[in-house]
Design brief:
heterodimer; A: about 425 residues; alpha/beta; FAD/NAD(P)-binding domain; 3 domains; 5-stranded parallel β-sheet; 15 helices; B: about 375 residues; alpha+beta; D-Amino Acid Oxidase, Chain A, domain 2; 2 domains; 8-stranded mixed β-sheet; globular; FAD/NAD-bd_sf (chain B); oxidoreductase activity (chain B); FAD-dep_OxRdtase (chain B)
Chain lengths: ~425, ~375
């Protein structure tokens, strides 16, 4: 008997809740996560963290307890990456507990994709995504040595800054492109739990004396005397801040790279949580449960339910947050210097992109295919997760994001040895212990 | 619908063949338009590994044509030629892991000798004597060829189209045409065009247009690796299994082993391919097949096991029923020329085919060397009673 257990990718709030729901219905899901522990980005390694917000810890505990209850029925595979899912219905997991099998259904709960806007100097050593700093802090408890600076926009920036403060490594400043505190009345319309959490983070930052420079752009980064110099601009006034490490974060986006109907054949595939729509951890749990219910419906071959709209409360909250952080984009890509790197995998600049578009417009339009093949945008190991938002924005009149994106597996680069080492349960008739 | 414009020549298909015809025709002073349903190098030309290979051709006519095209492309890569910087000479390494594969190497040796081709054997011996270090122990024999080259299909396509003084239109697909004494009326998705002559070079897109020319869409899966460590020597040329030759030239490869090609890119990445599957569904890739290819590739070059795979993709080649390309004027329609069915050999043959079709269009004289490729061969077969 071949292995056909349903697969859940990602053991964050959405994935865990989906696993609980499927287990409660009598199924034995396979739950895979590349991290060594459950919880996802938001609940990773909570016990090791300073007690920032009691509510967050409480919610994580409830989810963990619920999961512990069904744990014996879940095949939890940690430190294991989801690599691919093909039209033949085969899934490939690689790493510590890698395998090939044919899941009856798949739920992707892979979390959001962090956006980072290209700026001159953003590819220098010492500059990383703020999310990467947060993951390092949560999983290893460490941060890079020296002075830290956070820059960009969005609520997550403050959560990360507060976590750094709690870890005794307060950032030099938080540079916020938007101006969220300018609309206090609008902010007060946020739900109480969101406000409480925001107040806690802000309180931490105020107490630690971390300056929040709102309405300020980080326009350029350069190196000088072994330090990183962040050039900032606020209403035409320029300033420099010397630091050793910069964490960039320009918001979160849904993450469906490598997942499309044409790639996944006949198997029912659902997305849950922030990878489907960035609505935060409460919505993600809800969404995980609903995705699991959709799987149950699909497997019972009852008429499929249409995709359920997310709870409107969460949508309202995120819309409001987006408004609070919204601003006129003064760092719009066309204004950047031409040598700004857009695609760091293939080292392609804004100038390269403009040249390609210009050369073509004399005769005919540049196709998405040409931007990929000849100009190499989206062809590196990240498959365009980083650059295609910006390429699509610049070529909106000729190409679409969907055309630019290749949607090809593996989802992330995977070692040949790991592909070959994964045991194959798509055909093995002797493997009876797997339901 | 009003005719949008009038041309000496309309070419349907902006792949490497259509682009080469376009450039060669404009060199002869023809007024040319190229249309494509998607854009340049949107199908097989964009998905190819770029190997300009004579060794993989069927002995006889195909090997001769490939060699002639290779020699011509070499010329075009000289001085300020159109393929300068795009056509890169490099050695080819063809290996055997079994008796049938070794026999295929013997046949290759005979073909290169008997046909006096410009591709020559530089070395033939045990794996240890090869210029490539770290070969797997499965490999018993390696032939190093001199004279072949690398030319990425999309780069050549763009070079031809950039240099050709012609009008380009996409997305615009050829939907139908009507030959008449005055020329050809071309009906496209964006209106009607008029031309004296029409070239149909749209690969698998040709299938629906020419019902009397039987074709198969044959897809192949390809794997792209990361760049690998800087310390690792890049392969000087592709490492090709003799089974791949059998797959392309003989009646199947029997028990010769899985055909695998490990092709270095100038970036330090490697391309691992490729399968021949008769379903012809573009973009269909599967884990089981890719794993078999990788297993075979690691057996040939064990250090590949540490590389990371960043992308798997599929391309579709248009194949004819008898394995020969379909090139020439249509039997009852002398103003309509087709050039399709190359099944992956378009990269190698594009230079010659472009030159010869342009000559035929400009002078009305067609090359006797291409007579065997005529689309008319299928209609005459049908006439023979079963």
């Amino acid at each position: 008997m071949i292995d056909t257990r349903p697969l859940i990718v990602g053991a964050g709030p959405a994935g865990l809740r989906a696993a609980i729901t499927l287990s409660d219905a009598g199924l034995h899901p396979v739950l895979v996560d590349h991290a060594p522990g459950i919880g996802g980005a938001v609940y990773a390694n909570l016990r090791a963290q300073p007690n920032l917000t009691p509510k967050l810890t409480r919610e994580a505990c409830i989810l963990r307890q619920d999961f512990e209850r069904v744990r014996p029925r879940v095949d939890l595979r940690l430190s294991t990456a989801f690599a691919a899912f093909d039209q033949a219905g085969t899934a490939l997991l690689t790493g510590q507990a890698g395998m090939m099998f044919k899941p009856r259904a798949v739920i992707f709960a892979t979390g959001a994709r962090e956006r980072i806007q290209p700026r001159p100097g953003w590819t220098l050593a010492g500059v990383s995504s703020a999310g990467a700093l947060q993951i390092a802090l949560k999983t290893t408890g460490t941060l890079p040595l020296g002075r830290l600076l956070l820059a960009g926009t969005g609520p997550l920036l403050y959560a990360i800054a507060a976590q750094m403060v709690a870890a005794g490594r307060a950032p030099v400043a938080v540079i916020e492109t938007g101006n969220p505190l300018r609309h206090p009345l609008m902010a007060l319309r946020l739900p109480a739990p969101v406000l409480t959490e925001a107040a806690r983070y802000m309180g931490r930052l105020l107490l630690a004396g971390v300056p929040i420079l709102s309405g300020t752009d980080l326009t350029r980064i350069e190196t000088r005397n072994g330090a990183l110099i962040a050039h900032t601009s606020r209403q035409g006034r320029w300033a420099e801040i010397a630091v050793d490490h910069i964490g960039l974060h320009d918001g979160l986006a849904r993450n469906d790279f490598g997942i499309s109907a044409e790639m996944t054949g006949q198997t029912p595939v659902f997305q849950a949580g922030d990878c489907r729509s960035v609505l935060g951890r409460w919505a993600a749990e809800d969404d995980g449960k609903r995705a699991a219910e959709q799987v149950l419906h699909a497997l019972k071959a009852t008429p499929g339910r249409a995709a359920i709209a997310p709870d409107q409360r969460f949508v309202k909250t995120q819309t409001l947050l987006a408004k609070l952080f919204a601003r006129a984009p003064s760092l719009a890509a066309p204004d950047l210097p031409d040598d700004t790197v857009i695609c760091r995998c293939e080292n392609r600049s804004l100038g390269d992109l403009k040249q390609a578009l210009q050369a073509a417009s004399e005769q005919t339009q540049t196709t998405a295919r040409t931007l990929r093949l000849t100009e190499r945008f989206g062809m590196g190991p990240c498959q365009g997760r980083q650059c295609l938002d910006w390429v699509a924005a610049l070529t909106a009149d000729t190409t679409s994001f969907a055309d630019l994106r290749g949607n090809r597996w593996p989802i992330k680069p995977v070692r040949v040895r790991d592909i070959l080492d994964a045991p194959d349960f798509t055909v093995d008739p002797s493997h009876q212990d797997l339901k | 619908m009003q005719p949008t414009d009038s041309y000496d020549l309309v070419i349907a298909g902006a792949g490497i063949i259509g682009a080469s015809v376009a450039w060669h025709a404009t060199q002869r002073g023809l007024r040319v338009a190229v249309i494509d349903a998607k854009g340049p190098a949107a199908a097989a030309s964009g998905a190819s590994d770029g190997a300009v290979s004579v060794a993989s051709k069927r002995p006889g006519l195909m090997a001769n044509l490939a060699d002639a095209s290779l020699c011509y492309a070499r010329e075009m890569a000289q001085h300020n030629g159109i393929l300068k910087g795009i056509f890169h000479p490099r050695p080819t390494f063809i290996f055997a892991r079994s008796a049938p594969e070794s026999a295929a190497l013997d046949r290759l040796t005979r073909m290169l000798h008997d046909q006096s081709l410009s591709v020559t054997i530089h070395q033939d011996g045990a794996a240890q004597t090869s210029a490539i270090s770290g070969l797997g122990k499965d490999i018993t024999r390696v032939i190093e060829l001199q004279g072949e080259a690398h030319m990425l299909g999309y780069q050549a396509t763009h070079a031809y189209l950039r240099a050709a003084k012609c009008d380009l239109f996409w997305p615009r697909s050829l939907e139908a045409y009507e030959p008449g004494p005055e020329g050809v009326r071309v009906f496209t998705s964006a209106g009607e065009m008029n031309c004296a002559q029409l070239v149909i070079a749209s690969g698998i897109g040709t299938m629906g247009l020419l019902p009397n020319v039987p074709m198969i869409a044959r897809s192949g899966q390809l794997i792209v690796s990361d760049r690998g460590p800087a310390s690792e020597p890049n392969l000087p040329g592709p490492l090709t299994s003799a089974a791949y030759l059998l797959d392309k030239t003989a009646n199947g490869r029997g028990d010769a082993g899985l055909p695998v090609v490990i092709d270095p890119l100038h970036t330090g990445q490697v391309l691992i391919g490729s399968t021949r599957e008769d379903h012809g569904t573009e973009r269909q890739t599967d884990i089981a097949t890719v794993r078999r290819l990788l297993h075979s590739a690691v057996g040939c070059l064990p250090r590949l096991a540490e590389r990371r795979i960043i992308r798997v993709f599929a391309g579709v080649r248009s194949a004819s029923l008898d394995g020969l390309p379909i090139v020439g004027a249509l039997p009852e329609e002398p103003n309509v020329v087709c050039a399709t069915g190359f099944e992956g050999d378009g990269i190698c043959l594009s230079a010659l085919i472009g030159r010869e079709i342009a000559a035929h269009l400009a002078t009305g004289q067609s090359s006797p060397d291409l007579a065997a490729l005529t689309p008319g061969r299928f209609s005459s077969q049908e006439a023979i009673p079963a």
